[in-house]
Hints:
Oligomer: single chain
Number of helices: 14
Helix content: 40-55%
CATH class of the largest domain: Alpha Beta
Largest sheet: 8 strands, parallel
Strand order of the largest sheet: 5-6-7-8-9-10-11-12
Amino acid sequence: xxxxxxxxxxxxxxxxxxxxxxxLVRPHKFSVATMHSxxxxxxxxxxxxxxxxxxxxxxxxxxxxxxxxxxxMAALVERHLAxxxxxxxxxxxxxxxxxxERLAGGAPFARxxxxxxxxxxxxxxxxxxxxxxxxxxxxxxxxxxxxLGAEPAKAVVEEAGHLLAEGRHTSFKLKxxxxxxxxxxxxxxxxxxxxxxxxxLAVDLNGAWDEYTARRWLPALADAGVHLVEQPLPAEQVGGxxxxxERSSAAIMADESVWTPGDALRLATSNAADVLALKAGKSGGxxxxxxxxxxxxxxxxxCYGGTTIETSLGTAACAHLFCALPALRAGTELFxxxxxxxxxxxxxxxxEGGELLLTSGPGFGITVDEDKVAKYERR
Length: 379
């Protein structure tokens, strides 16, 4: 291993971006969009002493989810974030994260890619894994739920059965919201009946229902064996989430409703969620999710590690974050490398028995393969 940096500060020299397009192994359908490939903004940070850190900005399926795209992230990073970051000290990543928040508060996915590169560079400079910079790991592996799309029940059951037989995943989350509620609930019920308790089932509505529809159909989902319902109502309807939580025997998880620590505080004080979904991209990197998790822990709310379909680089970054959070008790869905038909790492992240193993090298422990990057780089 290289010797650890011994200076008191380490300045950023430059920040570089490249746009990649990585195909998926199958289409991934959300309530309002379908992904066929993943656009990735790859960020390379070069600091003094030749230290290099890597980050990535990805969004799930384009700007429908949070308003950003890989293209908009590239423009923002190149024109605004990079000029601010150059000259800053990567050995103070938390301070740099707060400055990024002030500069581009409404662009968390772009900030996340830059902040990842800063944390990676800091870990590499000090020759330690990032989780040590975050206080140390509470666990060295994470259970991974597989997200099944909104395809017909037969196709979903076949996919789930294949994954169970392989031992690759032991829990599943079903996408809902593309069909009328009675049709959707019937589909989920048929899937639950076919699996017959072989794996825990959750559903994700991406805010597709109104409160009346949710009141009408959540009991049927619970009766079918669904243990967790993610974002049944639009993000702003925190009061509605609280009322549903009072009635529902299935846990209610907030995702689109929780972007910032302020959102987490509002959900906690409103008793509106049993679980908070954390995503590095959604909250701007590794710094803000730590504050969200602290609020959740104080309120007795569990946290769940979400995904925005990251490569091995982003997946490893999220794993270092999630493994360092004591409140991360509800599992994760860090399945991005399985859904991507290609990767950018020399050695992709490792899964074993339905769990993601924490990488152990300096930074995020991922070596970016330049040949693979060139293969997927947008021309």
